[in-house]
Amino acid sequence: MFRYLIPFHPKRHPHFFTDVLVIGGGLAGFRAALAVDPALQVLLICKNGLENSNSIYAQGGIASVWAKTDTLEEHIEDTLIAGGELCERAVVERVVRSGPEEIRNLLEIGTKFDKKADGEILLGREGGHRSDRILHANGDSTGKELIRSMIEEIKRRSNIRIWENTFALDLLTADNCCRGAIVYWKKHDEKELIWAKQTILASGGIGQLYRETTNPEIAAGDGIAMAYRAGAKIRDMEFVQFHPTVLYIAGSSRSLISEAMRGEGALLVDRKGYRFMPDYDERAELAPRDVVSRSIVRQMEKTNSPNVYLDLTHKPADWIYARFPGIAATCLHFGIDIAKDRIPVRPGAHYSMGGILVDQDGHSSLNGLWAIGEVSSTGLHGANRLASNSLLEALVFGESSGRLASKTAQIMHNDYQVESIENPPLPPLDSIQQQFHSLIDLADIRNALKSLLWRTAGVVRNEDGLRGALEDTLHWSGYVFSQQFQSIEGWEIQNMLLVARLILEGALQRRETRGAHNRSDYPETLPNAEHSVKQEEILVKSNF
Q1: What residue ranges define each of the domains in the chain, with the CATH number in brackets?
Q2: pLDDT single digits (tens) 297-356
Q3: How far from each other are the two terminal CA atoms of the chain, in whole angstroms?
Q4: Which of 176, 273, 394, 529 could share a disulfide with 85, CB 3.0–4.6 Å?
Q5: Are residues 291 and 281 in contact, defined by beta-carbon separation less than 8 angstroms?
Q6: Who contacts 188 (Cβ-Cβ below 8 Å, separation ≥6)?
Q7: In angstroms, what CA-CA distances link 317 with 59, 130, 245, 338, 422?
């Protein structure tokens, strides 16, 4: 399958050359761009602005062994336990052991973590961690501070060029190699070919496929869809993590209520004020996210309620406002004083453990293509991500992919792109389908798909629901994929339908309950943990 677009010819359409192309403006993409040799040219493209990514919304913090009382071995074991026997130990060890060095790098570029009165970094704890090892900034605005310091450093690098408000439509491929991407640049209202010696995908997650999600509007699974169309291997798409505590108020934007709040002592209670988590797990509120999410859903069913509540009112008010200023401000918009009132919450789609299969350095199965951050499947998270490990993963794999993509680009011939341009691989003209799509309501399809996945591929799943959802998704895809859209809304819907299919097929094939994947009809966990890998059969060598 490939995107149906009017054929481009480089001699008649805009094109751009770069050594390394980075698609995505979150923490992973920024770290990769900074790791490229300053002698090489980097083009960093962002779907929206520089300050609009999943990373910037990260509240809880970044996990790393920093306290003298903590150990690397304990962080490794905590990650493996949470991952449902699907983590790759070598990857876990590498990421955890690289953590302290990445924290030092952040401090060097001016990142300001919260500190104690004596100047030592203040550490918190979240579900699944046996020690205090979560570094945070501005209370509950860690992502914002990380992105701030990264952007300032990027703007100091003369070799990094930034295109904001640029939508990546598809990867350019030839001879089983990624050679760049075709993008739509809003600034000039036109599509451009970007020829790159190496391409790094850091386009984020898939949260917008679900009605209830903590993710921003841009998280529509574009990178996974592009890589799949290009022939890269995709792994474990059925593992979608649902954050247990998302603000649930009619009219609100489903804001994340940080796991750090439970780490600081917040209790989960139902509509009657009953603290229910000890009934489900001895770790109570500090159990891993998959356990807490399933427990909340069960308690909502028991009490016939659309939500449960987080209660932090037993803590001093001044401390609450200082520790969680962002959450306090958000809740106050809806008349909730978190020092006096319980916070209504329920699970929401938060993070995808599956994605583009990569090796320990971030290289995908497609030559010339690297994938990092949430768009990738590195082996760190397994079936269930341990809280606050994602920012650490973004830094570690961002550094390795940027550095190694840089080295690869340096040894490639200087005429690499010129050769590609002289003989651009194009699909046959008769494959281009020009059809009317004025009758298609894109907003309605998007809403229907999000509701469908929430009902059938949410926290709890079963065979009938998944099969029905797959049938609906394939039906919608039948007429949506045949259209030639000329808008971001249309391109996103095509990506979302493709990724939805991958999630549903993976969930159907995995007949067990493991980590974030919960099958009510197959509640047991199989003795042998196996990954699920998919790859599109490529009929043409180009995606444009």
Answers
A1: 241-350 (3.90.700.10)
A2: 999 999 999 999 999 999 999 999 999 998 999 999 999 999 999 999 999 999 999 999
A3: 11
A4: 529
A5: yes
A6: 14
A7: 20, 27, 21, 8, 67
